[in-house]
Design a protein that fits this description.
4 copies of one chain form a homotetramer. Chain A has 12 helices and 15 strands. By secondary structure, chain A is an alpha/beta fold. At the A-D interface, helix 1, helix 2 and helix 11 of A face helix 1, helix 2 and helix 11 of D. Strand 14 of chain B pairs antiparallel with strand 14 of chain D.
């Protein structure tokens, strides 16, 4: 089987480019072959050499080479700071190249809706948004169980993402990641909300299939910081259910502590990323724990199809991100007319990207208006 | 050593009177000897006979008998529905009898402030409020570690209490507990908030030593229910820190899932009631778990003095409630001039009772005003 | 309802007398009224005064006073070092007084079989052995589920008890508990095995209902210690299943880490004392967790009848020991002809005591014979 | 950087070839380019096509092509049933090709010692044994902490591996994996012991750095099964410490439940594969939990160098196996004279392979001799 060829935009300096590199590579059905890894030509060459790929200081040149038939590419992965996403994604889609884009999808809502309009026209160039956690098999199972009616009507959703890495003003100490994450010019209107609050949101909404009507928010930042590092939101979901979303980057000792508890009229479903291999269903009396790659009659075949190793050997973050690439890969192979391609799961894309941008705008507005409810 | 003699008001029908009965009895230093266990004389006699105590259909008669020297009592425990607390507690204190009162302390804020005024004058009749969870040794340790500066300045507090027993309209099915808990005439202005939200509040404030400046709330109830069964509050604490308080009674599968995560400038402290024997301290790299009755150099003697059994054999709910009675017992014995009485820990009393009432009022108001911030 | 009157033998100096005192008292249906708390008359008086009971330096005098009608007693609790159990229990039973005896039941197997012979004749004086862990509601449920065929045929049992308190030679430092526990004259032929290995054994056998055919053991002790502090046994159960029993007192950091994993032909059942409120059933795909006082259709009424507080508020060690006293109380009340007495659960007694003694003898012999299998 | 080229022997039909394929690929520094994936030419071609590699029905032809300069290979991974390992590994080493070999290393001890003799002569062809669990970062940290003296002298080691997949006679139902695992002709003298007991052994010995002097064992199998499916061993380690090794394949609900508890004179260290991201250190009072990729002053640089992603995003089974390939890769690159190659960690190799074979022989002998202690 031919491996899909992937180009990357960004990723040379930060840690996350390498993360995508591994998630792309691990199934041995995809490989990174080219990269606009850095804007500085010397650094780009250095990184390209390390990765063993063709380097392009300018991402447009990479696209052009592909257009010209000088470079074999099946899709592009965008791993740049937020303010660059829209321009780069638009250029790829416009050229007909499928995209796996980091989130939050854009810098402004306007960009997001423009990108959506373009994506709708470019049906042969699928657009995927790397809400990595939705790639976990157990989150896919949670979504399926809810669809099957296992917990009845959703009544309340608690979703959270706690980190501690910004408990000090790292941005004043030359930390690159902290610098752009807390800089409005690069990250947009929200720091914590944009970085991890949107994960908490999409984890919950994608899993329940519900929309978000309005929010009331409390955002704060440590003295001396420009963007929120603590981001808490009450919401009302499309069916009237209550949303409680809490996220923070000042909870010392918390690393990537995200998850959700979804309370329905017939039971509850709960998942935590730091024990991603388990999914819990609670009826009134007992708790039933489902395990990754340990299937029951309730497990749809499509969920099974994302498993790689026997139960008890966990698939974790890289595999979850790999699953998002797998979904994109399946779509691309199907569009190419390959035979025997398994069905792609319905992972987040352009709609979740727009939703994330609307959510950030509403939350920031509500917090400024002292908690007033703001409709999306 | 003479056992303290305890009278009880209420408790004959509901389950919680028996809970206090056991918490009073377990140390074999206190015993219930009399009780106005029920207003119905026949039922009162039945319960009194079962418990092996002297029964009084009218609590005033019990107090009168004590006053007249016909009954030996050291203090009274009040376990009636909320709307009765104030009158009964006032009568006890007025007569000079110490009180252990169930929470929330009163039905209205006015009652609470009146009770406080009386309590301040009756220094020989200590007043204790049964915020049971504060009796857990590990919550006492959490409070001491925070006092010692272990986590630096408190920046954010997440406190929660999740239950599922009101996920259906039990009050329509003749459930006694559900009936009065969801009845504004008996419970006051808030259902979930009054029953368990106040626990979440006092757990957090008592442990951190911080006050509460203002709140923004979202309260809801299932259709057909008169009082909130889902009660969520953002708050600003006296030092400017953020409070996130979530409580619910519709989270199917959750029993008495309360606890807190307190994030400070130097570390985090976390505790969960359903694993009450552990307390976690997180620095940036590791998590240190302290165990009940397993002491370190940081454990104050007064905390040790509340331990009963070797570590690894847990002291749980009855023992925690027992500790509140122990604190009251120590105060009473000291006031009587007994020698060698250990120091009483500073468990919740009249001030926490007033705070709870103010909090409920502000939260209910904020929710009605669509999340507007309301100052306490 | 009249409280049962309890006399205690031993318990004045060690911590465990006070533990029984609390377990007896917590239900407010039993009370300690007399005690041969210490052999030293002055100390006995001191402890009796502290406890508020009548003191007897000589336990025989206490029995005599009861016989003479000068003291009201319903049963006696024996909390002395092992070498004294047999004589004291025989004296009680001979006089017709029911007994709650600490384990291991005796000092020698001969004593155990003599005691059994006497107990069989004294049907009106029930004999209970305080294998405390069997009093946990979830262990009772485990036993019932196995009886119901939930896990099919038992194929392998892993049972364990890990402690760390003897990781140093405490007996050389004047520690009273360590001194008699490591002294063959007071404890018998085994230290760790007698103290906690028998708990691990009875936990497993009582729960499965299986007997023990033969054992192969490895016992060791730290240099300078007289009795084993590490006690590991392979066994063959009466149905041919394999037993793996591990117990130790040198596992630093372990407090009372006992529990079992029972593997059957249809599933597994697992319980751990340090999370006593949960019981796990594993089929091939999921894990179902049962919670204390949270009942399903599988929960027998007799198991429910031992619950005290709502689920989510745990009943732990004192309550479990209390349950053993409750079982004895129910037997005594029924023998007295009281009406409406609930049925007593089948907690360990004389047969488990004899089994424990045989087990210790066989394990010690096997270890000396370099692991040779020894038949019980 | 040039990717290392890997050839594979076996792996076409079973699941584990694909597991190695992913572990090799995930870092994008190694790739499988050729494979003797199956002995059946048609199947070999089919698998080679799926994998996108050059297929060789005969592994010798693959080696010959490499020798002849027709195929670029840096090392070979052997994933065949046990009875084939020795011949294939010998052929590779003899030709000068480094090897990553599945365990148990051989079919007989004779083969193992022959292989060892050859490996010692072929210093430019490193030999690695895929004891995958030792690749976990936290197991590497455990080993380093013990070396640093953190727990003092090792006194007792409990190591375990519980599975449930052979709780029924799958080998009678056409299950390929079960068929060869329970077939003495393909697996050797032990089933459970060879498959997972050796993992439990090497996990413990490699981590502590101790040797094994002698064993006493109890092995059983379900009726109708030819090799043990339950394998329990007491051992004496080189320093006199006690080993308790338990492994089973009939524990329904257990997947890959392996781990260890190591008790020393100053503390305990404990790790469980199904929560591989945590390592626990217990002193007498508290438990300190270390997290993967969350480093302290005690973490050696070489351990850090194996981390891929930020703490809180777990590296699990594929990454652990990847780490073994990384260690082999580092050795190969260093031997080739590449610059800037990080130091390889000391993962298991030929000596652990020989030890595993000796251990299996001694355990099987002891069990046949009714638990007699057998010296290795």
């Amino acid at each position: 089987m031919r491996k899909l060829k992937v180009g990357m935009i960004g990723g040379g300096g930060g840690f996350f480019g390498k993360v995508h590199h591994r998630a792309i590579s691990l199934d041995a059905t995809r490989e990174v072959v080219a990269g606009a890894l850095h804007q500085d030509p010397a650094l780009c060459e250095k990184f390209a050499d390390e990765w063993g790929v063709v380097g392009y200081p300018d991402y447009k040149a990479m696209i052009a080479d592909w257009k010209a038939g000088n470079l074999d590419l099946d899709y592009v992965t965008i791993v740049t700071p937020n303010f660059l996403h829209a321009e780069q994604a638009m250029a790829c889609l416009a050229a007909g190249l499928p995209v796996m884009c980091e989130k939050p999808m854009c810098y402004t809502l306007k960009e997001a809706t423009d990108l959506k309009a373009l994506a709708k026209r470019k049906k042969n160039a699928p657009f995927a948004l790397s809400h990595t956690y939705t790639g976990h098999q157990m989150m896919m199972l949670a979504r399926e169980l809810i669809k099957q009616g296992k917990i009845g009507d959703v009544r309340k959703v608690e979703t959270y993402y706690n980190q501690g890495w910004l408990a000090t003003l790292l941005e004043k100490e030359g930390n690159q990641q902290a610098s752009w994450r807390t800089n409005p010019k690069m990250s947009g209107i929200s720091g914590c909300g944009g970085d991890i609050g949107t994960h908490a949101l999409i984890n919950a909404l994608w899993t329940t299939g519900l929309g978000l009507k309005k929010v009331s928010a409390k955002l704060t930042a440590l003295p001396g910081r420009k963007l929120d590092d603590d981001f808490n939101v009450f919401g009302e979901l499309s069916n009237g259910a209550t949303l409680v979303l809490t996220s923070t980057q000042i909870a010392i000792g918390h690393k990537n502590d995200n998850g959700f508890r979804i309370y329905g009229s017939k039971g509850s479903i709960e998942w935590a990323q730091e024990q991603a291999e388990e999914l819990h269903f609670l009826d009134g009396a007992t708790r039933v724990t489902y395990f990754q790659n340990s299937f029951t009659a309730e497990t749809p075949d499509i969920v099974k199809s994302y498993g790689r190793i026997p139960s008890g050997h966990h698939e974790d973050f890289l595999e979850a991100l790999g699953n998002l690439h797998t979904s994109l890969e399946r779509k691309i192979r199907a569009l190419k007319g390959e035979k025997g391609v398994a069905q792609a799961y319905d992972h987040p894309g352009i709609d979740e990207g727009v939703l994330g941008m609307k959510f950030l705008g509403a939350a920031v507005t509500s917090s400024k208006k002292k908690g007033a409810w703001v409709t999306l």
